[in-house]
Design a protein that fits this description.
It is a single chain. The protein folds into 2 domains: 118 residues, 3-Layer(aba) Sandwich (Rossmann fold); 39 residues. Helices cover 51% and strands 11% of the residues. It is built from 7 helices and 5 strands, in the order E-H-E-H-E-H-E-E-H-H-H-H. It has a 5-stranded mixed sheet with strand order 2-1-3-4-5, with helices on both faces. Helix 6 packs across helix 7. The radius of gyration is 24 Å and the shape is elongated. 22% of the residues are buried.
Length: 192
């Protein structure tokens, strides 16, 4: 029986170190070569993640896959269930530390997983609903939403004028101390 760990974070400024430590602290001795670390959004289905795809190629019947939380496998109940079903079909046990290390491919584990993932999905939907309500309220109050303008309207006008005279996006970005994409947004915004 080989033990693997799948550790995932959503952004580059996050680290999987805590997940690896949590798995080790729970008494699982996972060889470093069997720890799969990935930085990708949980909204991407597990079957579409490059690191998880490679993991699937390595797993064999009798292996154990450990995750710290269900949301490492997916962001919604259907994706998590599909992933666990795929692994169960391969003969791989899936253990989740969040659920006490229960094997998610067992009947008790499947029940726990479905209840927890349903609550997680419900909470995520509530968060989206609250966020949208807050944005709508702010918009009604006349607050400007979105990214703060880096260049003042006067500087934007100057950028447009200089672009018309053939100056390059790169040169203007360097001179104004902004990213090229900022200059391109000014240019593209004027074309609309």
């Amino acid at each position: 029986m080989r033990t693997f760990a799948y550790c995932r974070v959503s952004t580059l400024d996050q680290t999987t170190d805590n997940q690896v430590q949590e798995i080790s602290a729970d008494g699982h001795d996972v060889k470093p070569s069997r720890i799969v670390v990935e930085t990708i959004s949980g909204s991407v289905a597990a079957s579409q993640r490059p690191g998880f795809k490679k993991l699937l190629e390595r797993l064999e019947s009798g292996d154990v896959l450990i995750v710290t939380k269900l949301d490492r496998l997916g962001r919604n109940a259907m994706d998590v269930r599909e992933t666990v079903d795929t692994l169960a079909g391969m003969g791989v046990q899936v253990k989740c530390l969040q659920l006490g290390g229960v094997d998610l491919t067992s009947p008790a584990g499947r029940m726990n997983m479905q209840v927890i993932s349903a609550f997680a999905e419900f909470e995520r939907d509530l968060l989206i609903e609250r966020t949208q309500a807050g944005l709508a309220r702010a918009k009604q109050e006349g607050k400007k939403l979105g990214r703060k303008e880096v260049l003042s309207p006067a500087k934007q006008a100057e950028v447009l004028e200089r672009l018309k005279h053939g100056e390059s996006v790169r040169a203007l970005a360097t001179e104004f101390g902004v990213a090229r994409s900022t200059i391109m947004r000014v240019r593209d915004g004027a074309q609309n």
